[in-house]
Amino acid sequence: MSRILLVADIHSNWSALSAIQEDFDACIVAGDIVDYGTNPIPCIEWVRKNATVAVRGNHDHAVAQRVAARSGAGFRALAAATRPVHWDLLRPSQMKYLARLPVMQQVEIGGLKILVVHGTPRDPMDEYLREDKSAWRNRLEGLDVDLVCVGHTHHPMYLDLGDTQVINPGSVGQPRDGDARAAYVIIENNEVMFKRVTYNIEESIKNMRVNGIDRWAIELTEQLLRSGGHPDSFRGTEADAQ
Ligand SMILES: [Fe+2]
């Protein structure tokens, strides 16, 4: 039997990613390895080493293609503040790795047919879709898979659509469901386990200072990470982010 670790939306937060201590036979990464945090290198190298399958998120794409973040507030401003740090830090091979990640992957692990995409099959990197069963049914029409693993919303989600289950593990490096702990999923023996782990948020914030990010962006990150992105303290969606 395979034990699968599913992670998404790491967002250059190495303190959060390194806090996940699980044994696994296979690892699925549903996109957004980078942006928002300031430690992309260990995050990318971890994915390169451990991922059985990984797909490209909208932020991986924007960093790899050197797309300047649009000006704005909230998440968009935070991406604008942290993206240039990535361009300073990343080596060509790491930029190439992000650029070459497929936007959609279908694999079979432990007898399960799994589709991996960051957003939805209709718009693999960018579509932001929460718990809307009929919309998901529509997006999965014609696909013969047992599991669809997604990211993008930073909210854990489990949708049972009969033949297919849609799983979003939530975000490792920037949770937005009001729980500040790093989120991930373990799939084993046909059981889907949503897990959380406390990590060193102080270190993530300290690393923002080290990398010369503006004070407002550090304060915004601090508020976001400490609150787990609770809507009362931080408004906006991933859809605003680029
Ligand atoms: Fe994300």
Give a verbal description of the structure.
The protein has 242 residues and is α/β, with parallel strands linked by helices. It has a single domain (3-104, 168-240), classed as Purple Acid Phosphatase, chain A, domain 2 (4-Layer Sandwich). Helix content is 32%, strand content 20%. It has helices spanning 14-18, 40-50, 58-64, 74-89, 92-100, 133-139, 201-210, 215-227; strands at 3-7, 26-29, 53-54, 104-109, 112-117, 147-149, 157-160, 165-168, 182-188, 191-197. The strands form 2 sheets. It has a 5-stranded mixed β-sheet with strand order 3-2-1-9-10, with no helix packed on it. A 5-stranded mixed β-sheet has the order 4-5-6-8-7, with no helix packed on it. 46% of the residues are buried. The model is unreliable at 238-242 (pLDDT under 50). It binds fe (ii) ion. Fe (ii) ion binds at residues 9, 11, 32, 57, 59, 152, 154, 238.
Spell out the blueprint of helices and strands.
Elements: E1 3-7, H1 14-18, E2 26-29, H2 40-50, E3 53-54, H3 58-64, H4 74-89, H5 92-100, E4 104-109, E5 112-117, H6 133-139, E6 147-149, E7 157-160, E8 165-168, E9 182-188, E10 191-197, H7 201-210, H8 215-227
Parallel strand pairs: 1-2, 2-3, 5-6, 6-8
Antiparallel strand pairs: 1-9, 4-5, 7-8, 9-10
Fe (ii) ion binds next to loops.
